[in-house]
Amino acid sequence: MKVESLIFDMDGTLWDSAEKVAESWTDVLKMQPDVDMVVTESDIKAVMGMPMDAIAKKMFGEFPEDRQMELTDACGDYENDYLRQHGGKLYDGVEDTLKKLSETHRLYIVSNCQSGYIEAFLEYYGFGKYFKDILCWGDTKVSKGESIKILMDKNGITDAAYVGDIQGDCDSARYAGIKFIHAAYGFGVIEDEVPEIENLSQLPDVVEKVFAGK
Question: What is the pTM of this model?
Answer without folding.
Answer: 0.92
